[in-house]
């Protein structure tokens, strides 16, 4: 770091994104991107904005908020739009957590949570998952601060039911519960169904995974009008033009062609189930996933060795080198041909290891 870097951030450990190497043509199963392109209407909507890039985007995100509100059965005032769900989460942490309301999150979950907490100098408590990587809702009872739960969780792929989410809400009436639903469209239940009953619930979603728009950077929050107003206060205090014209148009077009994306989600879930079965037949431990990835451990070698062996053969997966996760790799679900290549490569690696 330079000698001018603020001492406030000297100890900050930044988030490590999935690698994007350029040295060869890899099969990328490491960043939970969709294997399918956006719907045809998205490309047309983006192209229509190219001649208007001299103009600022709509700071109120009017059209997209209206479309999202209609899609989820709420009012536009219940929607806040962000530059990816990461921006939404960062603003939510800043808006609702502080000395009087610490943050609570799991020890094995999305790696940006502790980074946001540290960057914003927010007090936080890490709550360990159970031995089987599940969340015990009772561990979050009486935590009237700000609880954030990735549901389904990453990197485990496990999901809580709405009864568990509601139990946490009831147990913390004076705290905010943020439910990060980046992967919910692949088989879990959305907490959006509880929004009309709880003013302390904020649901955060993204277009990156189920709507094939990771490169567009588009996320949003759904909550009561007061929570959304708080988020908008911070957004307008930092970057009111946070979402560009092309991304706003792409988001509206994607919602208009929702059947295309939900069909893709069902296809990905079916492929996921098939690959999980094949790995289990090979003796792997595979956690039951409700996401577009699998969290799995080989009986033949540790997670780091499997990650490295796959990389050498041109297949990228994700490995988290921490005590509770080091035996596992996280495998993004691609299309049928991609996953056939992945399984065949794993078989080749394990055969070589046995010789």
Automatic annotation (TrEMBL):
**InterPro entries from the UniProt entry:** Aminotrans_II_pyridoxalP_BS, Aminotransferase_I/II_large, HisP_aminotrans, HistidinolP_aminotransfase, PyrdxlP-dep_Trfase, PyrdxlP-dep_Trfase_major, PyrdxlP-dep_Trfase_small
> Superkingdom of this entry's organism?
Bacteria
- EC number from the UniProt entry: 2.6.1.9
List residues of the Aminotransferase class I/classII large domain.
Answer: 25-345
Q: What class of enzyme is it?
A: transferase
Q: What are the alphabetically sorted keywords of the record?
A: Amino-acid biosynthesis, Aminotransferase, Histidine biosynthesis, Pyridoxal phosphate, Transferase
> Which pathway does it serve?
Amino-acid biosynthesis; L-histidine biosynthesis; L-histidine from 5-phospho-alpha-D-ribose 1-diphosphate: step 7/9
- GO molecular function annotation: histidinol-phosphate transaminase activity
Where are residues bearing N6-(pyridoxal phosphate)lysine located in the sequence?
209
This enzyme catalyses:
L-histidinol phosphate + 2-oxoglutarate = 3-(imidazol-4-yl)-2-oxopropyl phosphate + L-glutamate
User: What are the names of the required cofactors?
Assistant: pyridoxal 5'-phosphate
- Annotated Pfam families: Aminotran_1_2
UniProt subunit comment: Homodimer.
Q: Which NCBIfam families match?
A: hisC
Q: What is stated as this protein's family in its record?
A: Belongs to the class-II pyridoxal-phosphate-dependent aminotransferase family. Histidinol-phosphate aminotransferase subfamily.
**What name is this protein filed under?**
Histidinol-phosphate aminotransferase
Q: What is the lineage of its organism?
A: Bacteria, Bacillati, Bacillota, Clostridia, Eubacteriales
